[in-house]
Write a structure and sequence with these properties.
Strand content: 25-35%
Structural class: alpha/beta
Largest sheet: 13 strands, parallel
Radius of gyration: 52 Å
Number of helices: 10
Shape: elongated
Distance between the termini: 139 Å
Length: 560
């Protein structure tokens, strides 16, 4: 056996130590990375972000920054990578351009725009320039290219121009201040006083004259008043008032509505109080008015109760203990002024209403039978006639000194008139007494309206639904009979005077709220107008946005 030479033994031993060989190779491969990290730290620059992939590209140019180590790859600078990305974005926006590597910079001839060979390699890849096969990018280079394609904000992309100014939108309505509201309320009240002082008929004929020079309004304001056509049988006359004013050069309007006051506006109205009668165990739910002094009984066992406003035309003295008692839930006012009873109980305007009119030539008895109409009986010859109540209404008129007796259940709109006497012989009620019902009854007499004796009406309470107008007197026959119960009136009672009702009946009058906005058929008027509602803002004229239904704060203010 021969002995191997020492050189051969050295290399053989090296090949038998793979771990040592791997360590040497690792050190050689990591030298560029360690050199780059040392250079980065020496420059005191921001460290690379976590997860950034370092890609080594071999240099293909003779002007490599590190010529002492040929064949060692050089890592491109981060700034060069961003410059390459910007160049790629510019080429995308402006179309294909000559490669910056081939074209020298126009400002400095002979010098290339990019001098870092690593950046040149990346630019060549982005722009599709040719590269030697030996330096073809690896998959890691593709990841860097994709990261560099993220859009960057440049100074050219920032607009320094301001948006055009937005034109101001004209308001659809203008609210009124408290002083302006008070002034306008005063102006409307002056108009009301003028109409009421001139009377209903003359007031409607000269509305334009009455609206001129109202206090609280300027001469430039335009005021107009228009009477609204209404149903002659049940409608209340209304007047629409419009005030037009120019504000900041634009026209604005304010609207108000006035409404006629019928005597049915009151639950109980007495023109002349009988000195022999006292208000005792009476309950009145609604407005009460008297044109003369009223006798109130104030005792522990008997005391009237008023659940509505109480007004007395005369300056009646009412003791403070009475004013402060529980009698007047809504207070009492005296010296309010007299409200005249119209001279004509039955105005002729109802003839144009389209209602069916029946004239009676003798005393008659009316028995209302609900949907079957009314059974008419001639008291003189006992002849009977069945009458239907049409939708337009039924009007029954007694001629001369004829008496009309009434009782039963009413359906529809009915007016019963007698120049002498209307006698209630039993319960007289609506078939439907709800707020939405169209059943309405008016009993009108230029003489009296009376309650028949107990021998006719029967024992117990008595129910009356309707509006009663007795120009001379409302009375209860044989009121001194023993106590029977309570006389209930649902609607309105208006009389020249009233008789006593006790001990036979206590009285309970409850106002029908439908009479706030409609009239019992052909019921007499008080000859006055009231402010029904008005707007507390200025609405733009000819502006769809200024329509009342589209304005949230445009609730009309009801005036009691």
């Amino acid at each position: 056996m021969n002995v191997r030479p020492k050189t051969t033994q050295f290399f053989s031993d090296m090949l038998r130590r793979p771990l040592l060989w791997a360590a040497l190779c690792s050190i050689v491969l990591h030298l560029p990375v360690l050199a780059l990290l040392s250079l980065q730290m020496s420059r005191n620059e921001q460290p690379m972000e976590e997860g950034m992939l370092l890609t080594l590209l071999p240099s293909t140019e003779s002007d490599s920054p590190d010529e002492s180590q040929p064949g060692v790859a050089t890592m491109p600078d981060v700034a060069d990578m961003k410059s390459a990305a910007s160049l790629q974005r510019a080429e995308t926006e402006q179309g294909p351009q000559p490669s910056p590597l081939a074209e020298p910079d126009q400002g400095q001839p002979g010098q290339e725009r990019f001098v870092n060979p690593g950046a040149r390699a990346i630019v060549q890849t982005l722009t599709g320039s040719s590269m030697p096969a030996a330096t073809e990018p690896m998959s890691a280079v593709t990841e860097i290219i994709e990261s560099l394609q993220t859009p960057l904000t440049t100074t050219a992309e920032i607009s320094t121009s301001l948006p055009p100014p937005v034109p101001a939108i004209a308001p659809a309505f203008l609210p009124m201040t408290e002083p302006a509201v008070s002034e306008m309320r005063s102006a409307i009240q002056h108009l009301l006083d003028r109409i009421n002082q001139s009377g209903v008929e003359s007031g409607l004929l000269s509305l334009n004259q009455l609206t001129s020079q109202l206090p609280g309004l300027s001469e430039a304001d335009q005021v107009s008043a228009v009477a609204v056509p209404v149903d002659a049988l049940t409608g209340l006359q209304q007047i629409n008032v419009t005030v037009t004013r120019r504000i900041n050069g634009r026209p604005f309007q304010l609207s108000a509505r006035l409404q006629e006051r019928a005597l049915s506006h009151y639950a109980k109205f007495v023109n002349r109080w009988d000195d022999n009668v006292m208000l005792s165990n009476d309950r009145i739910e609604g407005r009460f008015h008297a044109n003369s002094e009223v006798n109130f009984e104030v005792a522990a066992h008997a005391r009237p109760q008023f659940a509505g406003e109480v007004t007395i035309a005369s300056r009646q003295s009412v003791a403070s203990r009475v004013r402060q008692s529980t009698m007047f839930a809504n207070g009492i006012r005296t010296g309010t002024g007299r409200i005249a009873v119209p001279r004509e109980s039955l105005p002729a305007s109802w003839y144009d209403s389209g209602a069916t009119v029946v004239e009676l030539g003798s005393d008659a008895r009316l028995e209302f039978q609900g949907s079957d109409g009314v059974l008419l009986t001639d008291i003189g010859n006992n002849q009977k006639t069945q009458l239907q109540i049409p939708a337009a209404g039924l009007v029954i008129i007694g001629e001369g000194r004829k008496r009309i007796e009434v009782s039963g259940t009413v359906t529809g709109r009915v007016l019963v008139y007698s120049p002498r006497q209307v006698l209630i012989t039993g319960n007289l009620v609506y078939a439907d007494s709800t707020a939405d019902s169209a059943d309405t009854l008016a009993l009108i007499s230029d003489g009296s309206i009376e309650i028949a004796p107990v021998s006719v009406t029967g024992n117990g309470d008595l129910q009356i639904h309707g509006a009663l107008f007795a120009r001379q007197r409302f009375s209860v026959r044989r009121f001194r009979d023993r106590h029977q119960g309570t006389l209930h009136v649902y609607g309105s009672l208006v009389a020249g005077s009233v008789s006593a009702t006790e001990p036979r009946f206590y009285t309970h009058i409850r106002y029908d709220p439908r009479f706030n906005y409609s009239r019992p058929p052909a019921f007499p008027s008080a000859g006055l107008f009231d402010l029904l509602e008005w707007d507390q803002h200025w609405g733009a004229v000819n502006d769809a946005d200024a329509q009342l239904a589209d304005v949230a704060d445009n609730a009309a203010i009801a005036v009691p």
